[in-house]
């Protein structure tokens, strides 16, 4: 799509094709009350010095308190914290009542059971259209080893579960046709020729075996997660 002015919804959907982590950004307002909201526009910036950044919409309810804070924290949610993400993405008077949390070394709210957290001093605030980029210098952090929660195309996913499924055994099954009708194998007319391989390509191996039987093999076109 090319235009001087893009359709915001279409552009948002295109941005959403990029899978991200899900975080809750937290800080304290001038009265010491905790503030925070869900954000997925987070990235690491530098190891030396240790810098990260997060983008904050200027329309966010806690935008004034967040950008004025001397310190803020990034809570990277774990795969079991989808409800926390939803809670902090919606307007609510007391979002923090729904999650266990404590104060970090610099007083920022740190959540329990997160995949990782970072407490930062405010390094810079950079204007960027309808958002600002908050660049933080990491002053403390901790990683729990828990799998993080992911977000893409308007939905949540758990990378750990997806990786486990992808690591399973891959198999190939062929459907044979003879004169326009299915051609089963065996006396019971129930068996389909199949092959499974741990490290090889089962589809290519099965195709090779069928070709050795004098059968014509056409392109494979379906992939199923069973």
From TrEMBL:
Top-level taxon in the UniProt lineage: Bacteria
InterPro entries linked: Flavin_Rdtase-like_dom (IPR002563), NADH-dep_flavin_reductase (IPR050268), Split_barrel_FMN-bd (IPR012349)
An example Gene Ontology biological process: pyrimidine nucleobase catabolic process
Gene3D superfamilies cross-referenced by the UniProt entry: Electron Transport, Fmn-binding Protein, Chain A
Domain Flavin reductase like: 15-158
A GO molecular-function annotation: FMN binding
SMART domains referenced in this protein's UniProt entry, alphabetically: Flavin_Reduct
Keywords, sorted A to Z: Oxidoreductase, Plasmid
Coiled coil: none
Protein name, per record: Flavin reductase domain protein FMN-binding
Organism: Sinorhizobium medicae (strain WSM419)
Lineage, uppermost ranks: Bacteria, Pseudomonadati, Pseudomonadota, Alphaproteobacteria, Hyphomicrobiales
């Amino acid at each position: 799509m090319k235009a001087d002015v893009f359709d915001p919804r279409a552009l948002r959907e295109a941005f959403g094709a990029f899978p991200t982590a899900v975080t809750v950004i937290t800080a304290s307002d001038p009265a010491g009350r905790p503030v925070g909201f869900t954000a997925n526009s987070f990235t690491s910036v530098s190891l030396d010095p240790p810098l990260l950044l997060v983008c904050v919409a200027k329309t966010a309810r806690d935008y004034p308190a967040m950008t004025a804070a001397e310190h803020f924290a990034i809570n990277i949610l774990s795969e079991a914290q989808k409800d926390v993400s939803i809670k902090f993405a919606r307007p609510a008077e007391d979002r923090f009542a729904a999650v266990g949390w404590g104060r970090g070394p610099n007083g920022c709210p740190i959540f329990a059971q997160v995949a990782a957290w970072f407490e930062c001093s405010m390094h810079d605030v950079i204007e960027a259209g309808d958002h600002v980029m908050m660049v933080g210098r990491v002053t403390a952090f901790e990683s729990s080893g828990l799998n993080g929660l992911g977000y893409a195309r308007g939905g949540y996913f758990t990378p750990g579960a997806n990786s486990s499924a992808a690591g399973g055994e891959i198999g190939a099954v062929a459907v044979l046709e003879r004169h326009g009708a299915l051609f089963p194998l065996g006396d019971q007319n129930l068996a389909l020729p199949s092959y499974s391989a741990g490290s090889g390509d089962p589809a290519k191996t099965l195709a090779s075996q069928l070709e050795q039987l004098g059968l014509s093999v056409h392109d494979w076109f379906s992939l199923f997660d069973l």
